[in-house]
Design goal:
Mean pLDDT: 79
Number of domains: 1
Number of helices: 1
Order of helices and strands: EEEH
Structural class: mainly beta
Oligomer: single chain
Distance between the termini: 69 Å
Strand order of the largest sheet: 1-2-3
Helix content: under 10%
Strand content: over 45%
Length: about 50
């Protein structure tokens, strides 16, 4: 028999890298995952107005 539950992720550590923000997370059931949020260079993406 398999029991299913919704994972509740707790971040154990978080680091900025060239790939983005990397978070090492663990659920209370013992399952672990690595989550990556891509970096956002907002200032680089906004074009400057010229006079």
């Amino acid at each position: 028999m398999t029991s299913h539950h919704t994972h509740i992720w707790r971040t154990e550590s978080c680091h900025r890298t060239s790939d983005g923000l990397v978070a090492y997370q663990r659920c209370r059931c013992g399952v672990r995952r690595i989550a990556v949020a891509e970096p956002r260079g907002i200032a680089a993406e906004v074009p400057r107005a010229t006079a």
